[in-house]
Design goal:
The strands form two sheets. Strands 2-1-3-4-5 form a five-stranded parallel β-sheet, sandwiched between helices. It has helices at 13-25, 39-48, 61-64, 77-86, 97-101, 104-112, 126-132, 148-151, 155-159, 178-184, 190-198, 247-259; strands at 4-9, 29-35, 67-70, 90-93, 115-117, 137-146, 171-177, 205-211, 218-226, 230-237. It is globular, with a radius of gyration of 18 Å. It folds into two domains: 4-121 and 248-259, NAD(P)-binding Rossmann-like Domain (Rossmann fold, 3-Layer(aba) Sandwich); 126-243, Dihydrodipicolinate Reductase, domain 2 (2-Layer Sandwich). It is α/β, with parallel strands linked by helices. The protein is built from twelve helices and ten strands. Helix content is 36%, strand content 24%.
Length: 268
């Protein structure tokens, strides 16, 4: 089978990790393009990594790739996804929070035969949630604890005059729906959006966010009560070079890619 052509949109911590692995040789896959806000810096980074591939504008990625991996800021989600989906192609979306605000992209994928893939990312147990959603889920709750510095600058905190600087004890800085969390913390709460999309939706999924100076990792606990099972799962993610993002997120993207043409697929 010909190799699946992959474009990486965004060269932050996740995008660089994915591009490196693809360029180093992932059987069945080929890195065919990258896209970045600063094309000059992108070319410099590619040269420093000895990676040979073009730097393309977001609207042109569908010419280069069968699959685009979206690793860009959430505000650019539509610009990454729309051209690929209009061409009936696939997009792996890291910024799941953006999907809640751009539901028409899901309708576009259905209309054109494209596909949006949301990897498990920094969370755990999405397979169990999607399975439970085939029955009846009564409640889904997410509690997130993060080092205060990783939450600094979130729109919700700025709008409500909440400062996390210099706190010495855990402080709950948000409680509400997954939709509100995804809007107020677009760089931090893709996990809430992914959980909501897997289960009972962004309005019924409840979220608490804690700024906790006692943790050095991004910690998430989900609790699901359904007619098929009741389960609670926790994960502590080691931050990447970007404190807002766990290292496991890039690995989850790579695992999702491998499932596209794997002879055996493990998990729902």
């Amino acid at each position: 089978m010909p190799a699946i052509r992959v474009a990486v949109a965004g060269l932050g911590a996740i995008g660089r990790a994915v591009a490196r692995r693809l360029a180093s040789g992932m059987p069945g896959f080929e890195l065919t393009a990258v896209s970045a806000k600063d094309e000059g810096r992108a070319r410099e980074w590619l040269a420093s990594e000895k990676i040979k591939c073009p730097v393309a504008a977001l609207p042109d990625l569908s010419r280069y790739a069968d699959v685009a991996v979206e690793c860009a800021p959430a505000a650019l989600l539509e610009q990454v996804c729309r051209p690929m989906l209009e061409a009936g192609k696939k997009v792996i979306v890291v910024s799941a929070a953006g999907l809640i605000r751009n539901h028409d992209l899901i309708e576009l994928a259905e209309a054109r035969g494209g596909q949006i893939i949301v990897p498990t990312g920094a969370l755990v147990g999405l397979d169990a949630v999607t399975a439970a959603a085939e029955g009846k889920i009564r409640s889904v709750r997410l509690i997130t604890r993060k080092p205060p510095a990783s939450l600094a600058g979130a729109p919700y905190l700025e709008q409500h005059g909440v400062s996390v600087e210099g706190i010495t004890e855990p402080r709950r800085v948000f409680a509400g729906s997954a939709r509100e969390a995804a809007t107020g913390f677009p760089a931090n709460m893709n996990v809430a959006a992914a959980l909501a999309l897997a289960g009972i939706g962004p309005e019924r999924t409840t979220v608490e966010i804690w700024a906790d100076p006692g943790v050095t990792r991004n910690c998430h606990t989900i609790d699901v009560d359904a007619d098929s099972a009741h389960f609670t799962m926790s994960i502590q993610n080691i931050p990447s070079e970007n404190a807002k993002t766990g290292r496991i997120t890039a690995l989850s993207v790579l695992a999702a890619l491998k499932k596209l043409n794997a002879p055996v697929r493990i998990g729902t």
